[in-house]
Amino acid sequence: MIQKLTEKDLHCWAQMAADVYDSSVAEMLKEYEAGVYSNQFQNEYMYWHNNEIAGFISLTLRYDYVNGCETSPVGYVEGIYIKPTFRKMHIGAELIDFAKQWAKEKDATELASDCLIDNLDSLHFHEAVGFEEKERVICFAMKI
Q1: Which residues on adjacent β-strands are paired with residue 81?
Q2: Does 137 map to a domain?
Q3: Is the residue at 141 inside a domain?
Q4: For the residues 55-84, what does the mean pLDDT come to?
């Protein structure tokens, strides 16, 4: 069952999000609190399996350019995570199906996502649930 994130589930979400974003639980809770005011974290959904949280998906609508997409807005999977003990149960595919429906209800005709170039597990997951790799990007920065 997929349900919107509630305050009582926030710590569990933060533990999983910390794994996704290579962060700490405290930092994720801090970012969540700051993001609530900017509507950054308005579309967090938890996947429940037998009364236990098994994973989450974070969704947004992006109106700016999204690599590989041709339309706007684009439904965007900002993050998805399934706890290791729940993997290989098609929960990720169910969350992606949910994301597709969510995006369609918001008049998006495309769903996009990304992963780090060396995250082969994420790459294989995205391919397995129907995403097509569109392009690779190298990001640059410098201190000034």
Answers
A1: 56
A2: no
A3: no
A4: 93
pLDDT-derived band at 33, boundaries 50, 70, 90: confident
Strands of the 44-49 sheet, one edge to the other: 2-4, 44-49, 52-62, 74-82, 111-113
CA angle in degrees (0–180, nearest 5) for 93-101-123:
35
Question: What are the E-state strand segments in 1-144?
Answer: 2-4, 44-49, 52-62, 74-82, 111-113
For residue 87 the two structure tokens come to 């993997």
CA Rg, the chain, in Å? 15
The pLDDT confidence band at residue 40, using thresholds 50, 70 and 90, is: low
d(CA 10, CA 30): 11
Is residue 21 scored above 70 in pLDDT?
yes
Report the amino acid identity of residue 124: H
- Structure-block tokens of residue 13: 């979400």
Is 140 contained in some domain? no
Range(s) of the domain holding residue 61: 2-128
pLDDT above 90 covers a percentage of the chain that reads: 67
Residue 134 falls inside a structural domain: no
Question: Length of the chain, please?
Answer: 144
Residue type, position 101, single letter: Q
Helix (H, G, I), strand (E, B) or coil at 7: helix
